[in-house]
Design a protein that fits this description.
- By secondary structure, the protein is mainly alpha-helical.
- It is about 60% helix and about 5% strand.
- It contains eleven helices and three strands.
- It has helices at about 10-25, 30-40, 45-50, 55-65, 85-90, 95-105, 110-120, 130-145, 155-175, 180-185, 190-200; strands at about 40-45, 70-75, 80.
- The N and C termini lie far apart (about 80 Å).
Length: about 200
């Protein structure tokens, strides 16, 4: 009987880059994108070194759906991740129980699972700190801001005060985004539509 020769494992960094592009598409990172990302995120290897983690094991957890993918791939190929990448898993008791802990924050299991998949995509670059609480708060704020124009007293001074309180809170939760985000998300970001556009359309009273 013929014995099959094992196929060498593809480089984990390459596998992770391929998965990243499957999720985000292939879009160029400009010099301005690189500057923004380097200021907002950290290189995966450097974060792992600082926390005493094996970088390839972390990549395996990402590929296995236990930790989120990098938020960005810098133009030099560096995997850029949030500085608190390990915080949720550590707080939950480990990467193996993170999913159950995370999804339990939603009463509807289907919504919890959808949010978990969104978290794993690494695309929650719209929050300074990604937790179930901040995800839920951002969803509430964007919905409230989007519905504000239909309120009975829309346009009045008290209404503008309420609107800007919501906008200011969302502003504090979100970073600035970069041009790369508008490419991979196929349009304007929530900051564009719910912060900048609303402030321009409805100036403070």
């Amino acid at each position: 009987m013929r014995r099959e020769v094992p196929v060498p494992e593809t480089d984990l960094k390459q596998q992770l880059a391929e998965r990243f592009h499957q999720v985000n598409g292939v879009h160029p990172m400009t010099d301005a994108d690189d500057v923004y990302v380097s200021a907002q995120f950290v290189v995966l290897e450097e974060l792992c070194a600082g926390h005493g983690r094996d970088v390839d094991e972390v990549r395996r957890l990402m590929l296995g759906g236990r930790l989120p993918l990098p938020g960005y791939l810098r133009s030099d190929g560096a995997e850029m991740v949030p500085a608190d990448l390990f915080a949720l898993a550590d707080g939950a008791g480990g990467a193996e129980v993170l999913e159950a802990w995370f999804t339990a924050h939603w009463a509807d299991p289907a919504i919890g699972k959808a949010e978990w998949n969104a978290y794993l995509s690494g695309q929650y670059v719209c929050l300074h700190s990604v937790t179930p609480a901040t995800i839920q708060r951002k969803e509430h704020l964007t919905a409230a801001i989007g519905a504000a124009a239909n309120e009975p007293d829309a346009g009045s001074a008290p209404w503008r005060t309420r609107l800007h309180a919501l906008v200011d809170e969302l502003d504090a939760l979100e970073p600035d985004f970069t041009a790369y985000d508008r490419l991979r998300f196929g349009g304007p970001t929530s900051r564009d539509t719910c912060v900048d556009a609303m402030r321009a359309r409805f100036p403070r009273p």
